[in-house]
């Protein structure tokens, strides 16, 4: 017998167990899943195949620079094509290796080179430690292990812009020139970038060898996203579970986000999860709107977590003003609360001018809204509002050592008002 206040665990789980009717295979909606077909990327696939096919005739393919915004299918397309290339090269006994490196994680010259050496560790017996060797030595080893036999090596540097912004383009300079130092092997590079202006960061010599060929991935429109989602939805959901309006709505919302297929897939997956949790037998438009809200909030929370310290303090000043019903506020108001908070944390405050810039940054990130209004002959001033609920910000700061003391600070603010 259960005592009062106790719950019957079995029934708790059973309640959800019997509602397993939404997802047939949720993995299909994950980012890492490579579908059998890629709708609306035929042109890009053909171009890539065209550039890479010389390998099968024993010629070195050109380096390729792939770019387009996030979620335009760059990673999945390059993987799709290179996996096929591996398959066909095995069939014809042509030695092709493809090394895929995600430079968001592998973001230093040392790590890029070490990962390439270690890819061949079984063959060469050489393994580079994660840190510690002189970079020159890693590069020398790289040439040695790559050149051990005749082969074509294709190195995919995904999110290459992250590598260059963090560590410069030295490693690209070496890699694009490596063929002149090899006798047996031939190396080609595929660089993938989300940042269209990334080229400006490159030394012109690196740029010209890296972009021997360029492949552009334009954003998807709502109709194209719909085709992509339909294909995935058929495998991911049970028949009849999705309302007809769901896929078009996910596609339309993601098309507004610069045609991001990742966002579209996230919307579809989260909609299904919400429907499941609500024990709804169907996924409806209502669930998509909830999913949209949840994803936006989650993204904003991620952005807030990665703000620099003074932007976080500044944001907290705006949160306090909000809690006291003092928004919209102007830069001066925000600055004075910010300064008090710096005092409280024993930190040197930034100048008001710098804070004004940081307010603009928060505005661009969508966390606050800073509208410039004209005050007639008094000039112009900013009206600052908050775009996230104060308790969400507090929840984030609660887990951060330096900022946790701020959670108790609303008192300080009230005292200021009291004496003010
Ligand atoms: P990018 O690398 O350009 O940011 P991804 O290749 O990671 O984009 O694609 C994002 C998500 O959308 C992945 O889950 C991918 O499988 C899916 N996707 C993108 N384009 C297509 C397409 N044409 N067909 C099917 N799925 C796609
Ligand atoms: Mg990618």
Structure, explained:
By secondary structure, the protein is an alpha/beta fold. The protein has helices spanning 9-17, 42-52, 74-91, 109-119, 121-124, 135-146, 160-167, 170-177, 204-210, 222-236, 246-256, 261-277, 285-305, 309-323, 331-345, 352-364, 390-397, 410-419, and strands at 64-67, 96-102, 151-158, 185-193, 213-216, 368-374, 380-386. A five-stranded parallel beta sheet has the order 2-3-4-1-5, with helices on both faces. The protein has a two-stranded antiparallel ribbon with strand order 6-7. Helix 2 packs across helix 3 (74-91), helix 4 (109-119) packs parallel to helix 6 and helix 10 crosses helix 12. It is globular. The mean pLDDT is 90. The protein binds adenosine-5'-diphosphate and magnesium ion (MG). Residues 74-75, 158 line the site of magnesium ion (MG).
N-to-C series of helices and strands:
HHEHEHHHEHHEHEHHHHHHHEEHH
- Count of DSSP E strands? 7
Spans of at least 5 consecutive residues with low confidence: none
Q: What is the assembly state of the chains in this entry?
A: single chain
Query: Numbering strands along the chain, what is their spatial order in the largest sheet?
Result: 2-3-4-1-5
Mean pLDDT: 90
Number of helices: 18
The 3D shape can be described as globular
Radius of gyration: 27 Å
Beta-strand content bin? 5-15%
